TrEMBL record:
Keyword match Transmembrane: yes
Matches recorded under Gene3D superfamilies: Vaccinia Virus protein VP39
GO cellular component: mitochondrion
Keyword terms: Membrane, Methyltransferase, S-adenosyl-L-methionine, Transferase, Transmembrane, Transmembrane helix
Protein name: Methyltransferase domain-containing protein
GO terms (BP aspect): methylation; regulation of mitochondrial ATP synthesis coupled proton transport
Amino acid sequence: MEQCWEPGEPGEPGEPGWARPGGALGARGLLALAVASGAAAWATWAVLLMPGFRRVPLRLQVPYQPSSPRQVANALALLRGRAGKTVDLGSGDGRLVLEAYRQGLRPALGYELNPWLLCLAKYRAWRAGYHGNVSFLKEDLWKVNLSDCHNVIVFLAPSVKPPLATKLLAELPDDARVVAGRFPFPSWTPSSTLGQGLEQVWAYDMKEVRREAQGRAQESQV
Ligand SMILES: C[S@@+](CC[C@H](N)C(=O)[O-])C[C@H]1O[C@@H](n2cnc3c(N)ncnc32)[C@H](O)[C@@H]1O
């Protein structure tokens, strides 16, 4: 059937907002689509990825991105044979903590704010038979005290590395080792590194990091 438009009527071909049946979207359609996509993205962010993060400043929020099997293997290779408490700051689904425990790093625990990921990590611990031996705690990594941690795993965004470096320098014992995945600490010199590209991990020994920081501070005073 032929369609007719009266001149000036809304919906006339060529007017903003006009959409041909089965054809391209008009401006209003595009706007609605953009709003709906934005709302869906926000809902995914707020409900699935970042619930529990309301009290964390936006600049310190890091979304979930699980480490690959190679990244896990590399990180734990740099902690092999070490003693003391091992923590993953932002433990996600618990893969690094579970593997750390499996390799004999004990006690092993993860701090995580996302309740879905905490549930998943606890379920995976139960399934692996580690229930009661590893801990996944709903804590803000910026607020926990790390002074009794000897092995610290950090798979976080580069943007939070400078404030995290300040926290680690202030709290960790001298014999602690920090292992960073994906991105290094920009102002620290690693004691060792393993892997290439995104699989690369870096180990930092706090005693060396402090010595270097003190040297820099003395140089800047001269
Ligand atoms: C890039 S993912 C890494 C997950 C896990 N470590 C892995 O490598 O598979 C970062 C994780 O840190 C968590 N996270 C971010 N900010 C946090 C905070 N302030 N306190 C606790 N966990 C946090 C996120 O929910 C996310 O699961």
